[in-house]
TrEMBL record:
Key word Nucleotide-binding present: yes
Pfam families for the chain: ABC_tran (PF00005)
Protein name according to UniProt: P-loop containing nucleoside triphosphate hydrolase protein
InterPro entries named in the record: AAA+_ATPase, ABC_transporter-like_ATP-bd, P-loop_NTPase, Type_1_exporter
Organism the protein comes from: Suillus plorans
Domain of life according to the entry: Eukaryota
GO molecular function, one term: ABC-type oligopeptide transporter activity
Amino acid sequence: MILDNMWGNKSWGKAYVKQAVNDDYLRQQALTSLAKHTYKAEVMGGNLSGYLLNEYQKVHDALCHIPNGDVEDLWRRSTTALPSMFSNLCNDGPMLYIGLLALMNPSQVSVVQLAMLEQTATRLRYTFSFAKHIITIYPIELARLNNFYRLLDLKSKMKDGCMSYSPAAGSLGLSLEVRYESRVLNVSFNYPGAKSERDALKDVSFSIKAGQLVVIVGANGSGKSTILKLLTRYYDTTSGTVLIDGNPIQDYRIADLRSVTASLTQEHTLFPLSMSENIGIGSPSSVTNLDKIAQAAKLAGAQDVIKNFTDGYDTVLEPVKTAHLSYTGRGNEDLKKEYEKMEKTINVSGGEKQRLVASRTFMRMLSEDIKFVIVDEPSSALDPGGEYELFKQLREARKGRTMIFVTHRFAHLTKFADLILCMKGGSVIEMGTHQELLNHEGEYAHLYNVQAQAFT
Ligand SMILES: Nc1ncnc2c1ncn2[C@@H]1O[C@H](COP(=O)(O)OP(=O)(O)OP(=O)(O)O)[C@@H](O)[C@H]1O
């Protein structure tokens, strides 16, 4: 009985399954999970922390600031009996004392004294209840909230620049629509803490004019993705300079650069949010614009994926854990079935996931003032027809913006490219157009012919 009371009230030793069904609570859990490391690149790259913090604050207010924990954790905290035993003692203790006193010496205790004592005891009980909240719940809640804010306020460790990158800041006489010009001069780079002797990039130089379509090709590990990371300032060069519109990339505010960049990489992932929010978050200011979301889904070929689910755009993907099966209930088949029914997850295939993620990038391209688009192997799970269509739509949605593709399956893309960079061992070994490089009969021609043969 005492153990039962101390360790979680009435559930001690019993088998049970519980589920949280409150929409606000579930959204709070989903938003909290976005502070995890797995989403870091996406949250940073999409400048999403402001939007997510705002959404978190809304749901936190809607829940009247109840503690943020998983369903079992919450229940235990609200029902653990030690504090309530203590507050009961406060209530009953004085009465017990007066009762004993009255038994031993009835003449010393009046009815008024009894009433006053009871009132005092009630007040004390409230005081202890409040103290219980402050002592046990509030610090935990505060720690979780702080953690959430800290994780979402993902400040880059790099020194930020102070120059804004706004449409009026163009240089080199470029038109306002196509101003994202990159020049990489004698750049070498090695990843911080990398064990390899070899630099990831070694004395690389090239120039991309605003509005060009560039394709980077080369073997695994040749440095293709690393170039994109330097051009979007996820890292600073070890030596050499990266210029954006004629200015060193370090001079610009990082958030400004991110705000004009749309990316689609293999690291992009789905969030535990609805399909529509997963797409709409590509442009937080248009997250409720369902027409635009549908247009973005269509461009990425995701509309059929969405139609497959009864709840369509409202389907919540990779939902958070909502149910709890008690330890003692694990051997109980009926309870287990009940639990599995409650905890069923929404699964999408790898290719469907890539289409949904690509919809987010299209959303960004449709709604934001994007100057630079990077695409890094976003289609490994798509069938060849799907990949061809996705690349075609991306090319067409480009509308004069600077765009860089990194892909191994480039045969249907490079003939549209203004510039191809062919990489090997961290260096750009050839650059030019498709025809120039074919005529050169070097590494690019070799890679191209290997791909072409596979389709003849
Ligand atoms: N975060 C990292 N830390 C340390 N080394 C890294 C990191 N990322 C990449 N590298 C190394 O840097 C080199 C270039 O990697 P990069 O990812 O740019 O190649 P890639 O050409 O894009 O390869 P793939 O075609 O396989 O995607 C490789 O030797 C790789 O092992």
